[in-house]
Design goal:
Helix content is 42%, strand content 29%. The protein has 153 residues and is α+β, with helices and mostly antiparallel strands. The N and C termini lie far apart (82 Å).
Length: 153
């Protein structure tokens, strides 16, 4: 009688441990479906639909953005910010996926993720700097792997 009671106690404990581990793993999960879609991206186009301004990023800089999105962690914190930038991930001319971001935060479906590398924040700051340059000069020259473009009405 005591052995069966001990067996069932261990079994219940093991089940509780497994369920807890599953939920903890989901808590710190990465956007895996998105990560698979964008794994082969060789360029990223960053735009803000409201102002018709965007930058195109290729090469190692694009791979750095892909890596930042792939390694982001799920967050359950609710953010009261509207999406600011849209990232379109391309392989050649084929659109692989799009993600709307606000700083280091982005959403995939109903799940929110945070970039802990600082890459998405840095990219937002780069975007804002180039937009300010465009607004003050009327045009911006591209540098390195970044191509700046504007949509003229």
């Amino acid at each position: 009688m005591k052995r069966s009671s001990l067996f069932y106690s261990l079994l219940v404990g093991l089940v509780i441990f497994a369920v807890g581990a599953f939920f903890i793993a989901r808590l710190y999960s990465h956007p895996s479906a998105l990560a698979r879609k964008i794994a082969e991206a060789n360029s990223v186009v960053v735009t803000n639909q409201d102002d018709g301004f965007g930058i195109s990023i290729a090469g190692d800089d694009a791979k750095m953005i892909v890596q930042a999105v792939r390694t982001s962690n799920k967050t359950f914190v609710k953010y009261a910010a509207a999406p600011f930038l849209r990232f379109d991930f391309y392989k050649g001319t084929n659109l692989l996926a799009s993600v709307e971001t606000c700083g280091r935060f982005f959403a995939v479906g109903k799940a929110g993720y945070l970039d802990h590398t600082g890459t998405l924040d840095a990219l937002m700051n780069e975007y804002l700097q180039r937009r300010r340059e465009r607004d003050s000069k009327g045009s911006v020259l591209p540098t390195n792997n970044v191509v700046v473009f504007t949509n003229s009405p």
